[in-house]
Amino acid sequence: MEGGLDSHEHFMERCFQLALNGLGSVAPNPLVGSVIVHKGKIIGEGFHAEYGKAHAEVNAINSVLDKGLLRESTIYVNLEPCSHFGKTPPCADLIITSGIPRAVVASRDPFVEVAGRGIARLREAGVEVVEGVLEERAKDLNRRFFTFHQKKRPYVILKWAQSLDGYVDIERKPGDELKPIWITNELARAVVHRWRSEEQSILVGTKTVELDNPRLNVRDWSGNNPVRVVIDRTLRLSPSSHVFDGEQQTLVMIGNNFGSATRKPPFCDRPNLELVTLDFSRDIEPQVLEILYQRSIQSVIIEGGTQVLEAFLGKNLWDEARVFIGRKLFHYGVHAPILEAKPITEDRLFDSILYTYRNTTA
């Protein structure tokens, strides 16, 4: 065996570092990194870089220059190697045929097609398997993936910015220009765009679009645009709204009593726009999450407005909250949501503070 528990944790930490390189590119697959160790030295490493491309174990094995060393090595991976044919062949089979005698795995895969089968296949072939090294860290790394498969819904991130005196917006008047009222600084806005590139979808309500006319895309960062989800019960939003520009996939959720989604207004013939009906006589939050789940969307950032944020808070349908506090004072306006939780982290971004919360009761 390659060392004891401490060395296992050391090499698993490297797997976590590698895995994060796939954030924003591999969903709906999980984040996975892998290293191959020979006599205490890393001789190969890899990560899953893009959905549909080679998995971490494949890239790690391929990176080893002297394949003869594999028969004396240990492979580390933060998630159980797959055992089924999907977009790529099973990684468990590759480990076996490569002659690697030992595998250290942080956590089992919750996906029903794997769920212990990969580890079982390795052991049946005579591969020594160590499980559970930094398991909770591994599950946290892939919290979107685990939430999706275990709770059958996307991982829900609430995000808002509020003034020092607890408001998310000033009091708007009829005729005011449609634009956001910035509470935070440019660095904080760049961070938000990075988040958008890391998640699969972003959701706003009608009023946010009416007041701010947001684009909900990635501009101040490099990465993929999320799927826009806009709740517009009666399709009252202006066709000139940025969210209807057709530049990225957009789901417009309307009421089923408004009319059939097949009878679309002309502007909905633009590319990447789709109408989806909700039953507004029932709670719409579980319906929204079910629609996203059926489309294999594993995460959603909810950016507002206050009514939408409070609705998900009230139904306890949230996993994480990211709240910016700016240095502005509004004195009156739209009150920020009330979050009955303690932050797990506090980060200062110049004159703004970011608090991150996790829901332990969802």
Task: Produce a short descriptive summary.
This protein has 362 residues and is of the alpha/beta class.
Model description:
This protein has helices at 5-19, 56-63, 91-97, 117-124, 135-141, 143-151, 186-198, 206-212, 284-294, 306-314, and strands spanning 33-38, 41-47, 74-79, 102-107, 128-131, 155-162, 167-169, 201-204, 227-231, 250-255, 273-278, 299-304, 320-325, 334-335, 345-349, 352-358. It has 362 residues and is α/β, with parallel strands linked by helices. The strands form 3 sheets. It has a 9-stranded mixed beta sheet with strand order 11-10-9-8-12-6-13-16-15, with helices on both faces. A hairpin with a 2-residue loop joins strand 1 and strand 2. Helix 3 (91-97) packs parallel to helix 4 (117-124).
Map the helices and strands.
Blueprint: H1 5-19, E1 33-38, E2 41-47, H2 56-63, E3 74-79, H3 91-97, E4 102-107, H4 117-124, E5 128-131, H5 135-141, H6 143-151, E6 155-162, E7 167-169, H7 186-198, E8 201-204, H8 206-212, E9 227-231, E10 250-255, E11 273-278, H9 284-294, E12 299-304, H10 306-314, E13 320-325, E14 334-335, E15 345-349, E16 352-358
Parallel strand pairs: 3-4, 4-5, 6-12, 6-13, 8-9, 8-12, 9-10, 10-11
Antiparallel strand pairs: 1-2, 1-3, 7-14, 13-16, 15-16
Helix pairs in contact: 3-4
